[in-house]
Each structure stands twice: as structure tokens, then as C-alpha cells.
Specification:
This protein is of the alpha+beta class. It has two helices and eight strands; from the N terminus they run βββαββββαβ. The strands form three sheets. It has a four-stranded antiparallel β-sheet with strand order 4-7-1-8. Strand 2 and strand 3 form a beta hairpin. Helix 1 packs antiparallel against helix 2. This is DUF190 domain-containing protein.
């Protein structure tokens, strides 16, 4: 199998962040599909803290609020570059706060 150099974009967002009437993480995945991205996956975190230092966990019902969601997108550098302004506009329109990370990865598909 040959691995290709790609980019991984991670978007960290609270599960309660909304874009219109839908969760922002769902809309990010939908928009990535519309933009022709190679793929996107939304993952739910079970424990986190962020800029406010509040612990978010799925262990206790009273603390199980706004758990972290991570959307991962892998594609070519150019497609990631084109997607980031779209993502920024979505976040701005949702009045949410997200964190993104970006890194070079090597990927391939095994069939």
C-alpha cells in the first residue's frame, strides 16, 4: 500500500453548539461533503476541559453537559485551505467558539 501525504484538520466544538436548528458538528460534516472533501468523521469525547477550565464528562449526569465533539477531516492541502474560510463563516454565524488544529499526515486505504 502506498501512503500519500495529506492534511488532517481537527475541529473541537461543544456538542450543544448550533448552526441554525442543527448541531454545528453535523453541519460541518455536511458542508465538508458538499465541498467534495475526501471524508469527515465526528467523534464524541467523554472527558475534556478547555479555555474555561470546566471539566466536561459523561461519567456524572450533572456534569454531562456540552460534551466535546471532534470533527476530523483529511484531504489535500488545497482542499483544506479552501474549507477553512467556509468553516470560519459557519462558526461566526453560529456564534460559537471552536478550536482547530492542522497537521500533515500520511494516509492510505486498505481494501
Amino acid at each position: 500500500m502506498e501512503l500519500e501525504t495529506r492534511e488532517l484538520l481537527r475541529v473541537f466544538v461543544g456538542e450543544h453548539a448550533r448552526f441554525g436548528h442543527r448541531p454545528l458538528y453535523e453541519e460541518i460534516v455536511r458542508e465538508a461533503r458538499l465541498q467534495g472533501m475526501a471524508g469527515a468523521t465526528a467523534l464524541k469525547g467523554v472527558l475534556s476541559f478547555g479555555h474555561d477550565l470546566a471539566i466536561h464528562t459523561s461519567k456524572l449526569m450533572e456534569l454531562a453537559q456540552d460534551l466535546p465533539m471532534v470533527v476530523e477531516l483529511v484531504d489535500d492541502l488545497e482542499k483544506i485551505d479552501r474549507f477553512i474560510p467556509v468553516l470560519e463563516q459557519m462558526v461566526h454565524d453560529s456564534a460559537s467558539r471552536v478550536m482547530i488544529t492542522r497537521e500533515v499526515v500520511r494516509s492510505g486505504i486498505i481494501e
